[in-house]
Specification:
By secondary structure, the chain is of the alpha+beta class. It is built from 4 helices and 6 strands. It is globular, with a radius of gyration of 13 Å.
Length: 119
Amino acid sequence: MADEVSREPAHDPQDLERLLVSRERAGDVDGMVALYEPGAALDCGEGRLTLGREAIRAFYARLVATGRKFDFGEQRPAILSGDLALTSTRTPDGGVTAEVARRQGDGTWLWVIDQFSIA
């Protein structure tokens, strides 16, 4: 898929989920991490908060090594306010994700906060 090879940036906050799932399924950990701001926070569940790209890289490297594959879910329309966006997806198992993305200086979007499951 071109997303993993070219590391297509997210030109719309709605692109982030698709790119993350596509890159995870391809085993592209660095491509996954490229979707986050340097100081981003990732809530991995069970009270575990991962801060910064290096820690997020380590988390995703462990996850990809397990062979688990993310499934595409039903993405909800992003809520935009200036340079911030709230994105959310209902996963196939009924869970819900919530993320905050920020528009970058070049017009692309990166996640600042990512919570795997809120439901």
